[in-house]
């Protein structure tokens, strides 16, 4: 794709190194907009709650671990309802679109946007865009009411459909304008949020009173700044079923090896958390941690050792791990991309299974039984679990409050346990990755007892390459320049 965004940051500085990375507001480019009292003021469920409305000056720090003399650092605007809104409920025409790969919880977010708009703000004109960005200009829109979306959260996938590619900014904004839509809710990953940023810029260029609000979706947990993405917990939980099966199979055979491939194109969070949660895993391989097969400290040596000690083992491998090894072997393999420009990966699970089988057949006298399980799509096609459902509800409600209050060009996200509004480019400029010199990865290594495949020299190199940690808290906000697209 590669549409470049010119998103202008709105930065406010305060005392003691306080920085607010604010989000745009309709009044930044449309002066003298009338305001209305927030309808929640007369809603019996809310009017009794003290301090229900968020103070205009409330912000949330990006770092919660600070030193005595350190500056206060970067903050984001706190999400929540405001006393005044910039839309008359009857005038709102909202639409929702879901883009990119599936993720547990998409339907819950759709449901909660529709319900929040209707039950909190009395907005009844909400439409679904069919099949991702291209649905804006190629298909009819779907009427969404609290009744029609009532039990969709019990289903996996997205009732609206999703797609990759097909982002045509001019056609999308033309369609928004033609249909009289004035609130656009965009649910998707890093690519989707980049698309949302350029839609926002075009809307602003045309001086339209239209909100563009994003909700971050990524099963890989590769979106920076936010604590974690919705659906991630569900995916890790679902992965346990595959790991358990691999363990049962491995344990029941002589020198049994269970190999499980999990999602994670550039970031190994699912594999790392699924491994930490399971405790049956002996080896976890992720894209961020290069490994090698032969020789001292290599993968085969470790497998042999483990089989001799335990008689069986379980390997979890993220789909993006070891891609450089596959590329070396398949120098002529086509460099293919999906419709959004994401690189298509080779199947590392099949490859590593075959490598292990060949090694034990040709180079050792150990007979092994290897079972390869690929639950890739199973972990993201399921409905969200209870905790993700709550999370999705908060994200959706926060997003609706922000839109009604006139904020635009923002992504709704959880930062240090608080709902916030984050400027688009903070979400898209980097990619969240596991930092293998961080304590979280060290915890994993000590839980599996696997080799790190790193020599002291390699560790020094990695440390040099790394950006300064934005959060002293373990495993948090480990961001790298975005390698997607
Ligand atoms: N730089 C960009 N500018 C405009 N649109 C983009 C850009 N990158 C991606 N998009 C559009 O965003 C949509 C989703 O992108 P993509 O397929 O990369 O998924 P994603 O949102 O990153 O989600 P995930 O990677 O988690 O599945 C696609 O329709 C794509 O055309
Ligand atoms: O096959 P699809 O639908 O393009 O999705 C696969 C990709 O989507 C992701 O789940 C990200 O959404 C990656 O982990 C994976 O590589
Ligand atoms: Mg992506």
Automatic annotation (TrEMBL):
Membrane-spanning residues = none
Family annotation (NCBIfam families)? PRK06830.1
> Where does the protein end up?
Cytoplasm
Q: Which GO terms describe its molecular function?
A: 6-phosphofructokinase activity; ATP binding; metal ion binding
Name of the protein described by the UniProt record? ATP-dependent 6-phosphofructokinase
Its Enzyme Commission number(s) read: 2.7.1.11
Ranges where the record places region Disordered: 466-485
What is the species of this protein? Solanum lycopersicum
């Amino acid at each position: 794709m590669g549409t470049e965004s010119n998103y202008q940051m709105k930065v406010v500085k305060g005392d003691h190194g306080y920085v607010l990375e604010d989000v745009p507001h309709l009044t930044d480019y449309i002066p003298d907009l009338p305001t209305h009292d927030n309808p929640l003021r007369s809603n019996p469920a809310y009017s009794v709650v003290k301090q229900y409305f968020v103070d205009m000056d409330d912000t949330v720090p990006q770092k919660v671990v600070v030193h005595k003399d350190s500056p206060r650092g970067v903050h984001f605007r706190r999400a929540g309802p405001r006393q005044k809104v910039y839309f008359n409920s009857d005038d709102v025409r909202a639409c929702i679109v879901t883009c990119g790969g599936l993720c547990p919880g998409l339907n819950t977010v759709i449901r909660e946007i529709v319900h929040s708009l209707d039950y909190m703000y009395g907005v009844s004109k909400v439409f679904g865009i069919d099949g991702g960005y291209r649905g804006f200009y190629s298909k009819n829109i779907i009427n969404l009411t609290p009744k029609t979306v009532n039990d969709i959260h019990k289903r996996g996938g997205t009732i609206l459909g999703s797609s990759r590619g097909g982002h045509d900014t001019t056609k999308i904004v033309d369609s928004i304008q033609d249909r009289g839509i004035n609130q656009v809710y965009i649910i998707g990953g890093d690519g989707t949020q980049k698309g949302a940023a350029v839609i926002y810029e075009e809307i602003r260029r045309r001086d339209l009173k239209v909100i563009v609000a994003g909700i971050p979706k990524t099963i890989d947990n590769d979106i920076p700044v936010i604590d974690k993405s919705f659906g991630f917990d569900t995916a890790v939980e679902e992965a346990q079923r595959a790991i358990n099966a691999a363990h049962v199979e491995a344990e029941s055979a002589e020198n049994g090896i269970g190999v499980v491939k999990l999602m994670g194109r550039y970031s190994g969070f699912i594999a790392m958390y699924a491994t930490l949660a399971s405790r049956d895993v002996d080896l976890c391989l992720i894209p961020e941690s290069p490994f090698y097969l032969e020789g001292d400290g290599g993968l085969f040596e470790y497998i042999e050792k483990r089989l001799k000690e335990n008689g069986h083992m379980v390997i979890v491998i993220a789909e993006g791990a070891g891609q450089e090894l596959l590329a070396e072997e398949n120098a002529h393999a086509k460099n293919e991309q999906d419709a959004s420009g994401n690189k298509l990966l080779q199947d590392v699970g099949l490859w590593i299974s075959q490598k292990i089988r060949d090694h034990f057949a040709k180079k050792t006298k150990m007979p092994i039984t290897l079972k390869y399980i690929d639950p890739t799509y199973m972990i993201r096609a399921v409905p969200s679990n209870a905790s993700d459902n709550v999370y999705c509800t908060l994200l959706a409600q926060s997003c609706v409050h922000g839109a009604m209050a006139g904020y635009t060009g923002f992504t709704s996200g959880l930062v240090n346990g608080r709902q916030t509004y984050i400027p688009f480019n903070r979400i898209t400029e980097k990619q969240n990755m596991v930092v293998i010199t961080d304590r979280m990865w060290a915890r994993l290594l000590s839980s599996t007892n696997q080799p790190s495949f790193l020599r002291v020299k390699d560790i020094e190199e990695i440390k040099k390459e790394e950006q300064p940690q934005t959060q002293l808290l373990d495993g948090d906000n480990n961001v790298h320049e975005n390698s997607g697209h």
